[in-house]
Structures are given as C-alpha cells and as structure tokens.
C-alpha cells in the first residue's frame, strides 16, 4: 500500500521556497533565501547557471535582462562582471508599494548561498538544461566543499533537473543523493507506468506543474515508489487541495502562505 510507504500528513509535506521567498523579495538573492528560512520554509529551491569563467551563479534565467540591470547571456559574462550587477531594483519597480528597497542585492554564487544558509540549510538545487556538461560535477564539488555530500542527513540536499542525463550522471556517482526528475508542463499527466518505472531507476521522485496535476498522478507516482512535488503553487486554495491529495512537497514563492495552510490542517 503506497500510503504505508509514503504517509503524507500535511505536517510532513515539505515547504520549498521557490527561488527563495520570491513573492516577497527579489528572486534568487540572499535576501530571498534568508527570508524564506525566517518564514518557515523547510528548504530553498535555487537554479544554477555558469558564468563565462566557470563560476556557478544562482540565477534562474540564462539571460540577465529580466532580473538584473545587465543584458545578454549569463554565460557571456565573467563572475566579476556579474557580481557588479544590481539584482534587486527590478523588484522595486515591479512592486512599487513594497516597503523595502533591495538595491544592494547581487546575483549570489552557489558558494555564497551555501555559505549564507550554512550546513544546517536544506537545499533543492536545480541544474538547468543546456549548461556545460561539467556543471553537475561542479555542483557536486561545491556541495562537497561545504560538507553537504558527507552530511549525516541524506535529504539535506535535493538535486532536480528537467534533463534526465544530468540526473543519471549524478546518480551514478552519488546514488545516495535525492534526485527529482522535473516534468515539463506540456508532458504532465502523460507519463506511462513504464515511464515512471524508468525514472525510478535513477530518481527518487518527480516534479510536476501543479496545473496539470491530478490526484491520480500522485497515486500513480506513489505506486511506483516515487515521491511527487508540485511546482509552483502560490494560491492557498490550491495548496489545500494538494495537501488533501497527499502530495509530498510544494514549491512556492510564498512559504509563509503554505506554512499557514499547513497549520490549518
Ligand atoms: O521546482 C520546479 C521549478 O523550479 C521549475 O521551474 O522554471 O521555476 O525553474 P522553474
Ligand atoms: Ca527552478
């Protein structure tokens, strides 16, 4: 019985802060990650890209234009150039009523995020598609430097990707790491039993877009021994429904809302 293997009372559903508390502070900045922890998130989600000189930078887009005052591709800039960019002013422009100015916000390196939240931090690191093939190894090396591969708490770090090749590469080297296969919005709901079983050979779970997630998808994933995470859920009503459906984790821009909803249960 899948429920016996994966009991998911609301209290155990993980509250994952998507790009930090990105509904309240500029996404993927140290301010957003620290705020997420203060708001009661169990884990912070972050995306990595590579700079031209090979530094892992914590930024979602492959380009700079949406969330910084820079232009063009992340990978066409060196770390030093990227660190000079303002990664907070756009948020104030988008939310003029917001009382805090984030003009000193910078793009953090992965190293800086891990240093900031420390060895007690819990992370969900997404390796984007189309990055240089050494990216997964670099992420592992960075985790190792922060003693996060040698951790006694096996679930302290989750690595997720839409790219199965990246996850398989990591699984071969570190089968103990918890891996989540992200499923694109357009594929959600179309996974066959065989597809889920193939994912279960290298990953621990799947991440689905919440708008495409049905109760039956959760049951089917659980039957194959996979956990199931919903991304990116910001409405309390939808959070309540997913808790009711026994989802295992919810990724949200508003970890404070999810915390409130979990307390109601
Ligand atoms: O947790 C899944 C989610 O982060 C994937 O989408 O585009 O926000 O990285 P995206
Ligand atoms: Ca992500």
Helical/strand content category: alpha/beta
Helices and strands, in order, run as HEHEEHHHEHEHEHEHEHEH
Counting DSSP H or I runs of 4 or more residues, the number of helices is 11
Q: Which molecules are bound in this entry? A: SN-glycerol-3-phosphate, calcium ion
CATH superfamily: Phosphatidylinositol (PI) phosphodiesterase
Q: Give the amount of beta strand, in percent.
A: 15-25%
Oligomer: single chain
Helix content estimate = 25-40%
Low-confidence stretches: none
The CATH topology is given as TIM Barrel
Provide the domain count: 1
Q: Could you give the order of strands across the largest sheet?
A: 1-2-4-5-6-7-8-9
Radius of gyration: 18 Å
- Kindly, what is the distance between the CA atoms of the first and last residues, rounded to a whole number of angstroms? 23 Å
Mean pLDDT: 93
The profile of the biggest β sheet is: 8 strands, parallel, barrel
CATH architecture: Alpha-Beta Barrel
Domain GP-PDE: 13-262
GO molecular function, one term: phosphoric diester hydrolase activity
Pfam families: GDPD
Protein name: Glycerophosphoryl diester phosphodiesterase
């Amino acid at each position: 019985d899948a429920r016996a293997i994966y009991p998911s009372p609301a209290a155990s559903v993980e509250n994952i802060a998507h790009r930090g508390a990105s509904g309240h502070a500029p996404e993927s900045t140290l301010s957003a990650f620290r705020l997420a922890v203060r708001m009661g998130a169990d884990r912070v989600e972050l995306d990595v890209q590579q700079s031209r000189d090979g530094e892992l930078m914590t930024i979602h887009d492959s380009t700079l234009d949406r969330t910084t005052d820079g232009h063009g591709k992340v990978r066409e800039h060196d770390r030093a150039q990227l660190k000079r960019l303002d990664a907070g002013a756009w948020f104030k422009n988008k939310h003029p009523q917001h009382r805090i100015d984030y003009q000193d916000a910078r793009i953090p390196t992965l190293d800086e995020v891990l240093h900031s939240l420390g060895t007690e931090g819990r992370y969900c690191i997404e390796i984007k598609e189309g990055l240089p093939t050494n990216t997964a190894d670099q992420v592992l090396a960075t985790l190792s430097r922060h003693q996060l591969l040698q951790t006694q708490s096996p679930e302290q770090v989750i690595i997720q990707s839409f790219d199965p090749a990246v996850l398989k590469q990591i699984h071969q080297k570190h089968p103990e790491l918890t891996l989540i296969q992200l499923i694109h919005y357009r594929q959600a709901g179309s996974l066959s039993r065989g597809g889920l079983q193939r994912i279960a050979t290298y990953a621990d779970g799947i991440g689905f877009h919440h708008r495409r997630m049905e109760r039956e998808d959760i049951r089917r994933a659980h039957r194959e021994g996979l956990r199931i995470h919903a991304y990116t859920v910001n409405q309390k009503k939808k959070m309540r429904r997913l808790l009711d459906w026994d989802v295992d984790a919810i990724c949200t821009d508003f970890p404070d809302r999810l915390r409130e909803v979990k307390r109601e249960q």
